[in-house]
Write a structure and sequence with these properties.
The structure is a homodimer.
Chain A (H helix, E strand, L loop, with lengths): L14 H21 L4 E7 L5 H9 L7 E5 L14 H5 L7 E5 L2 H10 L5 H20 L3 E8 L2 H13 L9 H8 L1 H14 L7 E5 L3 H24 L39 H25 L3 E7 L5 H9 L7 E5 L5 H4 L5 H4 L8 E5 L8 H4 L5 H5 L1 H15 L2 E8 L2 H13 L9 H8 L1 H15 L6 E5 L3 H20 L2
Chain lengths: ~500, ~500
Amino acid sequence: MLETIEQTKTKKTDAAEELNAMRDELINLANAAKANKIPVIITIDGWSAAGKGSQIAKLIKFMDPRFYNVEAIRTPNVVELRKPWLHRYWQKLPKQGEFLILDGSWFRDTVNAYMYGEISKTEYKKRIDDINTFERQLADDGYLIIKFFLHITKDEQQERLKKLVSSEITKWRVDDHDIINSDNYSAFFKKYDKTLCRTNTSYAPWHIVPANNKVTAQFSIMMTVTNAIKAACAAKENGGKFEEKPEFPVIDYKPEKFKTVKTRKLKEIDMDKSLTEEEYARKLDKYQEKLFKLQNICYQRKIPVIIAYEGWDAGGKGGNIKRVASALDPRGYEVKPIAAPEPSELARHYLWRFWTRLENDGHFTIFDRTWYGRVMVEPIEKITPQERADMAYQEINEFEKQLTDWGAVVIKFWINIDKEEQYRRFKERENTPAKQWKITDEDWRNREKWDEYETAVDRMVKLTSTEFAPWTIVEGNDKKYARIKALKTICKRIEERLGI
Amino acid sequence: MLETIEQTKTKKTDAAEELNAMRDELINLANAAKANKIPVIITIDGWSAAGKGSQIAKLIKFMDPRFYNVEAIRTPNVVELRKPWLHRYWQKLPKQGEFLILDGSWFRDTVNAYMYGEISKTEYKKRIDDINTFERQLADDGYLIIKFFLHITKDEQQERLKKLVSSEITKWRVDDHDIINSDNYSAFFKKYDKTLCRTNTSYAPWHIVPANNKVTAQFSIMMTVTNAIKAACAAKENGGKFEEKPEFPVIDYKPEKFKTVKTRKLKEIDMDKSLTEEEYARKLDKYQEKLFKLQNICYQRKIPVIIAYEGWDAGGKGGNIKRVASALDPRGYEVKPIAAPEPSELARHYLWRFWTRLENDGHFTIFDRTWYGRVMVEPIEKITPQERADMAYQEINEFEKQLTDWGAVVIKFWINIDKEEQYRRFKERENTPAKQWKITDEDWRNREKWDEYETAVDRMVKLTSTEFAPWTIVEGNDKKYARIKALKTICKRIEERLGI
């Protein structure tokens, strides 16, 4: 894409006036984006010394600073390195109606990591997929993503770097990476170009900005941003979906199709499995000891373990989690109970609150209820339209794939009980003073929708039992059996991952 | 305190049974703490190899893992070092009804930093004050803080370390610090002892646990925790305040008294100040340029700048902030609009949401509305009882002192307009379609309480205009004048800090 760009040398004489007009428009559009609850992400990538920082400063100069956040993306720090690579971008997602403006993005992150030998060619390619997936997930959720690459010629870059270095005030701004970037201009040119092509999608197309001339560059950025927001607002007001007109041929992006393993329907599960007290006591000791040892290895080898618990109300999730947790060194895990989302969570992509709850590598993160609420309670309770919820099967598989690529063992349990057993447990809770807080009207209401839930669970298990993150349906009428099965499954999955 | 501790050598024969009974009790008490919305912090400090980790594991073994979080406190990482030293503890504060259990705490953090020469004697002393203040603020807010120090003798420590090192499986758990701790047992003994004495307060007394014998240590920890929670719940149910019975004489802790500077009442402010368009344009350029340069220096010298905006509705905070923000490199600041707290924020100390919003050192954090809501809107709207809100003057001064100690320049603006000007602006907003979203019924309701607010503001300005974080009342009837005054004040305060 880069070779077709011509650097405009002529200065626009009427630029100042036009820019002022566009600025006023931008302020109004920012308000319109707020009113329409459109979250906007603007990324500014480009060559070292291409003027990314100063273009951002010009872009936002008259916007309301309460509604944007500018972040400079640098080499990931020690804390960021202990999370999936996209984690730091997820973490910064703007709320609906707000702007996130990035000086450098996942694009530069990926090209640099490859060029500096920090990631292999295979990892580089995987990251390209991750980027396309990430941007598609956001676009599908209504995020407007506007991506810029500021292009300058080699001569221009060298001149600018020389000028920066020659002044006491600015020389600290030039670092080793800038010099390497410039010394290897043609190698970077090739890699930038390829990466631009590979991430030029219909839902997040690139805007290549000739940036030898700062005024025309500013003009071009401002124009693109205003047009995109205007069109996105218009589309939203008309209930339609918005896509920017791409400047270059887009790639034919197709979401990855994940192979799933054979699963059973809940109806097909043998619910009579049980253990005697003696078997239970023996096996509990055995698997808790084993798990403790495995945790030690995971900690040392920095392998993250993600355990997701779903199941019927009163299925016994709490007690099950307790037996897993009490096997572990408490400094190495955290249990995340998932309740109804808070306002700041509702204002972002639904996966945001799970991304931001991930513990460091080497640690266990245990979710008590999970991202699967998206395809169960949300459509059934009409919190999310069925069509939007249906998109989550793919999104969730992608999410779990990215966790797996990070190195995580992803283990998912559906704790299953039958309808009679649930009734018995509800009644017992009602009749036991110490347990009454555990049973609410909502539990009874959910119970009335048993069949709807069962259909949703069957579908979820079928569609999201990927090879890397299969569901384990746990026969839960007997709590002892269920606990041992969960412990055993966790040990087995970790051993597979460790190759022992 | 340490020299009076005798290590019990006798093993309790009936320990197992008693421990089981206590465990059951602990589970019930954890539920009671949840029901009573008491947040609990348990810190386990002590010698290297004193068994902190395994004691924690035993303590929580049967608790519900959804309601506790165990954190191991290590040497602060690069990200933590860019925040005030207590930031990482604030960040981890448990919600009401939840448990935070720390393996190592601000106590060890402080002793180690001093012993390893990372902080000076003066800084060490300042940290002792910070600890006592921090714990008092939490205790005043209803947090139950239970602090343990696990004490082992020199011989016992050396034996344990030797054993750990001799096994392939455990030797990685012994690090340089452990060896240094042991090699310098008597020096650490002295420093531990002094620090224990200096942080032994009535609201957060120490429990010294003789830990040569692991069973009696466990017994003692369990007993202390159950007793403390039981008493705290009883006190809460009776509407009283709870304090643990101290085992050692407590220090006579008195909150620091801060000198305040002379201030004026709002009534005494000359509201006729204004600037012509020409003066405004000239000064805006001048001070924005100056501020940009100062930001550059702050960034390089890692000086944080905290700017707090308060003021009457329609006072012009937004436009004022915009002029400050647009002077700055956007990668170096963030504006934090403060709205009504979310559930997760309401469930913690009210300062939590401000601590967790602090940007890194070298950055500007601009708050649009602040922690001062505590002494204005909260008591006036009966969200917080007046007596509790009144405690905030001291708490806020302490907070701002800690920010100043961190190195921050703390600048606070009250944007003042008179009642007629507010009426004019409200009406203008109502009559301008593009501004209608800015005016709500709540604004009119607040206006009716003008006098109450004025009294609260006068009091707030008087009581929290400390020498290190004085209020600047900005005459805001003329927006131009107000903007220049804010910019000028920011520049002046930063220059003072830089000594230029």
